[in-house]
Structures are given as structure tokens and as C-alpha cells.
Specification:
This protein is an alpha/beta fold. Helix content is about 50%, strand content about 15%. The structure holds 4-(N,N-dimethylamino)cinnamoyl-COA. 4-(N,N-dimethylamino)cinnamoyl-COA binds near residues 62, 63, 80 and 108.
């Protein structure tokens, strides 16, 4: 692939958007390659993904403004759909995805980060939805996901003003879970991914689905979703081993309940 690299480290897959000369801006090719990369993740051997950008300056500086500038209405719609489809694929991907945000996360960059389950960033990270300054609205889910992530008031302020915020403010408003130095960011992401990967994969997947699906409906329906996914864990090797180890008071095993089945 030209713009995406994929690396597997034990149960963790690391996807890097690799277009540093354009600050990893998302053109059609990047979106297509990202889609293909997700399609090729081996879900039998991968329990968590990390998404990051190449270089030390930018995670993703948005959709490619050069490519977008000449689009017709129909082409703009097709480009928007391509982005929305791949962002939604990330959001609903069966296993957790951690965004390791190593610099600019503007426009589509902020939006792709919000499609991930967990966001951590480096101290030089900058977030924003500058689209109104370009004469467009956030088009890859920004108006929806930012409001759900940081609350309506703060999302409206960021989107209407187009003002960028730095890492410390992103942390304060809950856009990211943690801020690390640039040097420490990837190790922190890998550590988090590794902790997640040591837990029962079926349970982790079902938690992601329960949280995501439950947020779309009212509480009564949400609890039904939770019940189903809770029930789904029973009779799995994970559940038998996890509870069995506890009852046997096998502390060694309790800390590391392996091997888990992955499906
Ligand atoms: N697109 C294309 N190229 C970009 C880019 C971008 N978004 N951001 C940076 N680059 C390129 C620059 O053109 C430059 O290329 P060369 O001139 O070297 O060839 C190179 O990356 C380095 O950038 P700078 O020289 O500008 O670097 P600085 O450190 O001075 O500034 C910056 C960094 C991030 C502050 C600045 O590059 C910047 O403001 N970039 C644009 C950020 C931005 O506005 N991002 C939001 C894009 S709009 C849609 C769906 C989604 C979207 C739209 C429609 N539909 C549903 C249709 C999404 C829209 C967006 O994301």
C-alpha cells in the first residue's frame, strides 16, 4: 500500500496513516487503503487496534483540501460517503480501536479520532473542526460525534468558531483520555492495547457493542441489548475459564486468563 502501514505485535494491530508530507491528510486513496486494511485484519489473532499517523507533527490534518477543492456536488457526496463508510467501519469494528494522536487532528482528523473507542494524545496535539472557515460543514460525522463526546455546548463552540484547541484543553473537556509526551505516546497506546488484549476477547467485543448500540436507544431498550450480550458470554471458554479460575482461587491464572477463544 502507498499510504497505510500495518504491523502486528502479538494481539495488537497498529495502523499508521503514512502520508507525512501532506500531514497525513485523507485523500481518496488513503480512505480506500484504510478500508482495505480494516477488511484484512485477522480477527482470530487480533484483539485491539491502534491508529496513528506517521511523523512527529501530525496525526491527520483533515480531508485533503487540494483534492476536495475541485469536486462537483456529486463527487463531493461520493467522497463524503467514502469517508463516512470507513469511519463507521472503525466505530463498529468488532474489537476496540485506540487513536494515538501524535499531532494535528483537524477536521477529518478530529473526526476519525472520534470514530475510535479511546483517544490518547501527545502534548503537541491540536484538535479542531475548522470546516466553517473553508465554507463547508464537518462532513465525516463531526457535528454528531463531537456533540456526543464533549457535550453539545462545547461542540457547538468548537464547530461555530472553528477554533483549534491544544492537548491540555482536549483532556479537560474529555476529548482525550490522557496526554503523554511524544516519546511516550506509542508505548502508552501499546500498554493500553495490551491490557485490553489480556482480557476475555468475547466479553470485550460484547462490551463495545453494548455501549455503542445502547447509546442509540432509550434506557429500557439499552438494557435489553446489554442482557443479550451478557447472556452471549455464557458457555464460552472465556467465561468458564474466567470464573473457574476465580473459584479455584488460582491467582496466577486469574491475572492472565489464557488461552481465550476469540470467537
Ligand atoms: N489537505 C491537503 N494538504 C494538507 C492539509 C490538508 N488538510 N493539511 C496540510 N497539508 C499539506 C500542506 O499543503 C503542505 O503541503 P506542501 O505545501 O508542503 O506541499 C504540507 O501539508 C505541510 O503543511 P503546512 O506547510 O501548512 O504546515 P504548517 O505547519 O505551516 O501548518 C496546519 C500545519 C495543520 C496548521 C496547516 O497545514 C493547516 O491548516 N492545514 C489544513 C487543516 C484543515 O483545515 N483541516 C481540515 C480540512 S477540511 C466531507 C467530508 C469531510 C470533510 C469534508 C467534506 N463531505 C461529506 C463531502 C472534511 C473536511 C476537512 O477535514
Amino acid at each position: 500500500m502507498e499510504f497505510i502501514t500495518y504491523e502486528q505485535q502479538e494481539f495488537v494491530g497498529i495502523i499508521t496513516i503514512n502520508r507525512p508530507k501532506a500531514l497525513n491528510a485523507l485523500n481518496s486513496k488513503v480512505l480506500e487503503e484504510l478500508d482495505a486494511t480494516l477488511n484484512n485484519v485477522d480477527l482470530d489473532t487480533t484483539r485491539c487496534l491502534i491508529l496513528t499517523g506517521a511523523g512527529d507533527k501530525s496525526f491527520v490534518a483533515g480531508a485533503d483540501i487540494g483534492e476536495m477543492s475541485t469536486l462537483t456536488k456529486a463527487e463531493g457526496e461520493a467522497f463524503g460517503k467514502k469517508g463516512n463508510d470507513v469511519f463507521r467501519k472503525l466505530e463498529t469494528f468488532p474489537i476496540p480501536v485506540i487513536a494515538a494522536i501524535n499531532g494535528f487532528a483537524l477536521g477529518g482528523g478530529c473526526e476519525i479520532a472520534m470514530s475510535c473507542d479511546i483517544r490518547i494524545c501527545s502534548d503537541n496535539a491540536v484538535f479542531g473542526q475548522p470546516e466553517v472557515g473553508l465554507g463547508i460543514t464537518p462532513g465525516f460525522g463531526g457535528t454528531q460525534r463531537l456533540a456526543r463526546t464533549v457535550g453539545v455546548g462545547m461542540a457547538k463552540q468548537m464547530i461555530y468558531t472553528g477554533r483549534n484547541i491544544k492537548a491540555d484543553e482536549a483532556f479537560r473537556i474529555g476529548l482525550v483520555n490522557a496526554v503523554h509526551t511524544q516519546e511516550e505516546l506509542m508505548d502508552a497506546a501499546k500498554k493500553l492495547a495490551s491490557i485490553i488484549s489480556c482480557n476475555a476477547p468475547i466479553a470485550v467485543r460484547n462490551c463495545k457493542k453494548a455501549i455503542n448500540d445502547g447509546l442509540q436507544v432509550d434506557m429500557d431498550q439499552a438494557l435489553v441489548i446489554e442482557e443479550k450480550l451478557f447472556g452471549d458470554c455464557f458457555e464460552t471458554e472465556d467465561q468458564k475459564a474466567g470464573m473457574g479460575n476465580f473459584l479455584e482461587k488460582d491467582k496466577e491464572k486469574k491475572l492472565k486468563v489464557v488461552p481465550f477463544q476469540n470467537k
